[in-house]
């Protein structure tokens, strides 16, 4: 079902500040910045081999990213697994007793079809299924 790690999402207070670390120190290159209005988040993607680092900055104090940072501080917020068919992956997870955050996929940054699994069912890790047209 899982093809690879698509990306690791890292919650940050400031993408501009975080980019200095990821580009200057780590030598990664910025692929682009995008605001996803319905998720109240600004994202920056930095390719790393076959995967990416996704920096996530809240655009609203009531967003999931703002709440995450308030509760846990900056850091890894989720891991995204690339799947061929997000609907099928959700169905299989639900059949195996995994609690879903998203019963149906939605669109995320870069036009990817995404859905999240609840961390209470995945040993404390927020897992995202991600389907991209290749």
Structure description:
The protein has 134 residues and is an alpha+beta fold. It has 3 helices and 8 strands. The chain has helices at residues 15-25, 64-72, 86-95; strands spanning 2-11, 32-36, 41-48, 51-58, 75-83, 106-107, 113-117, 127-131. An 8-stranded mixed beta sheet has the order 2-3-4-1-5-8-7-6. The model has no long low-confidence stretch (mean pLDDT 96).
Quick structural gist:
With 134 residues, this protein is α+β, with helices and mostly antiparallel strands. The chain has helices at 15-25, 64-72, 86-95; strands at 2-11, 32-36, 41-48, 51-58, 75-83, 106-107, 113-117, 127-131. The protein is globular.
User: Which outline best applies?
Assistant: globular
Write down how many β-strands occur, each being a DSSP E stretch of 2 or more residues.
8
Q: What are the low-pLDDT stretches, counting only 5+ consecutive residues below 50?
A: none
Tell me the strand order in the biggest sheet. Answer: 2-3-4-1-5-8-7-6
- Computed CA radius of gyration, to the nearest angstrom: 14 Å
Structural class: alpha+beta
Round the mean pLDDT to the nearest integer and report it.
Answer: 96
Question: What amount of the residues lies in strands?
Answer: 35-45%
